[in-house]
């Protein structure tokens, strides 16, 4: 006798939150566990910022950034075990994590023409993944509010700035002195303030998002909780 195993219902999951709350690590872990696709939308904003800087465009020159918004080709690979990001065919996964891009990305991502361009890309990737597999986990700042307002599950991650700064400093290696922690904390808070106060699609928790404070949880525990929520939605 042959048993039929039905494919899991495709699920679109939006994970938002401030910098360093664990969005990328959680989203990759969840997507890998459930065989889903994964989209790092911050990497897309970083990639377009990298291109602007390479072109000599001043990130503070809103008109110049807007005029160039459609020019670079940005391609995201959505395998959670090996996510990729290219600009005009160049792998930019390393340079987009540098201080220059990190310092400029909030200015570029606040420009409405940039948001319209990147939001369009994000929606088409999410649609494709939901149509052809078990779904996608999309992480960013405005996924639940603007990019995918009809997502099946929305999560908003939080953690105190001190916790986030300690995690980030640990990631960078080297001595964990007070001055370094304070500088890392200030950098996170500066970016959160810029991202939440912009007019176009700011960092915000969607009204129907589940808020999860990751401060006292290990990464494994956070992944476990999100997986449980997805399985609950699937069986509902
Ligand atoms: N629950 C957790 N417990 C301990 N460390 C964690 C936890 N979640 C994430 N981390 C660590 O915190 C750091 C930041 O995590 P991650 O890059 O996933 O955050 P993020 O929200 O995607 O940040 P950003 O918005 O700046 O891209 C990483 O070093 C990660 O390993
Ligand atoms: N949905 C999003 C995602 C990101 N941004 C902007 O990109 C910056 C970098 O994001 P990381 O997650 O890689 O740290 C972030 O500070 C935002 O300016 C965004 O606007 N919307």
UniProtKB/TrEMBL annotation:
Species for this entry: Streptomyces calidiresistens
Residue ranges annotated for the Cytidylate kinase domain, each copy included: 13-231
Family according to the record: Belongs to the cytidylate kinase family. Type 1 subfamily.
Keywords tagged on the record: ATP-binding, Cytoplasm, Kinase, Nucleotide-binding, Transferase
Lineage: Bacteria, Bacillati, Actinomycetota, Actinomycetes, Kitasatosporales
EC number(s) given by UniProt: 2.7.4.25
Binding sites annotated in the UniProt record for ATP: 17-25
Gene Ontology MF term list: ATP binding; dCMP kinase activity
Reactions accelerated catalytically: CMP + ATP = CDP + ADP; dCMP + ATP = dCDP + ADP
Pfam families: Cytidylate_kin
Any one GO biological process: pyrimidine nucleotide metabolic process
UniProt xrefs under InterPro entries: Cytidylate_kin, Cytidylate_kinase_dom, P-loop_NTPase
Protein name per its UniProtKB record: Cytidylate kinase
Gene Ontology cellular component terms for the protein in this record: cytoplasm
Subcellular localization, as worded in the UniProt entry: Cytoplasm
């Amino acid at each position: 006798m042959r048993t039929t195993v039905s494919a899991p219902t495709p699920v679109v999951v939006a994970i938002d939150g401030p910098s360093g709350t664990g969005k990328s690590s959680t989203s990759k872990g969840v997507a890998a566990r459930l065989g889903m696709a994964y989209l790092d939308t911050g990497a897309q904003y970083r990639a377009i910022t990298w291109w602007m800087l390479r072109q000599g465009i001043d990130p503070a020159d809103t008109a110049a950034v807007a005029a160039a918004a459609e020019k670079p080709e940005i391609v995201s690979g959505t395998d959670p075990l090996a996510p990729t990001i290219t600009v005009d065919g160049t792998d930019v996964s390393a340079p987009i994590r540098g201080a220059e891009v990190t310092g400029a990305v909030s200015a570029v991502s606040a420009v409405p023409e940039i948001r319209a361009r990147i939001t369009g890309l994000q929606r088409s990737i999410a649609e494709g993944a939901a149509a052809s597999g078990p779904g996608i986990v999309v992480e960013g700042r405005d996924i639940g509010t603007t990019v995918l307002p009809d997502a099946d599950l929305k999560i908003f991650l939080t953690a105190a700035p001190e916790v986030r700064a300690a995690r980030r400093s640990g990631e960078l290696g080297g001595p964990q002195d007070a001055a370094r922690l304070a500088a890392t904390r200030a950098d996170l808070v500066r970016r959160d303030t810029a991202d939440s106060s912009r007019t176009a699609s700011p960092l915000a928790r969607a009204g129907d998002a589940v808020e999860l404070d990751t401060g006292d949880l290990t990464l494994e525990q956070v992944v476990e909780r999100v997986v449980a929520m997805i399985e609950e939605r699937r069986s509902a």
